[in-house]
Amino acid sequence: MSFENKTVIITGASRGIGKAIGLKLAAAGANIVIASKSVEENPKLGGTIFSAAAEMEAAGGKALAVQCDIRFEDQIQNVVDKTIEQFGGIDILINNASAINLTPTEQTEPKRFDLMYDINVRGTFMMSRACIPYLKKGTNAHILNLSPPINMDMKWFQHHLAYTISKYNMSMIALGLAAELKKYNIAVNALWPRTTIATAAVNNLLGGEALMKMSRTVDIIADAAYYILSKSSTQCTGNTFIDEQVLAGEGITDLGKYSVVPGGQLYNDLFV
Fold first, then answer.
1. Confidence band (pLDDT; 50, 70, 90) for 40?
2. Given CA atoms 222, 228, 229, 230 in this order, what sign does their dihedral have?
3. Of 6, 35, 195, 258, whose CB neighbour count within 10 A is largest?
């Protein structure tokens, strides 16, 4: 499937995984809509919607930067309206924006719980809802959520219950929409990495430089997303993919190029 002139909305695309997926699809000729909050650069995070848009266009695609906090439905609708105005349709939605707070229940403040639920769950749901009318008219339409396979082993719940249930909700949205939208030929899947990925979140919140060195680059997720979104929307839907599994399906088993430290030890991501 060609991405030439396909229109892709990506939440949280000003940096990290969202931006990497955007660059991969832009290089294949797609129109990328960067729906993120950052309009001024934070030195700890890097990147804004405008710098990301410039990179997408340099990669070969067209780009539209729209400031959006997906906690607010008027801002979600603004993204959709501006996308239709600029590009005339929506073919792909990537729900990448996410909040993380790895605390046990007693240490999880209400505002932290609400942030994760408002972004990870409500934001994903409402962004999908707003795009569905246009995805119905799209070409080989896909929704892709960046969320893990649902594993009910209690070890994934015991240390950070609020975060776990918010991410599993994103995967449940993917599975539910896959069934709901199948009759419209809209594919809905989830994607998650086997190892930690070298992003600002990993560096600032999880493990610093030591964990960054045990991670893979964002390119592995971008490549996996590319292959999923290339599949027929009538055939590839209702899956919770792991990046390695997707690449293996394409005959790619040597993943050394994705390691931040070539040949270094890798650290398994959560939920895997």
1. confident
2. positive
3. 35
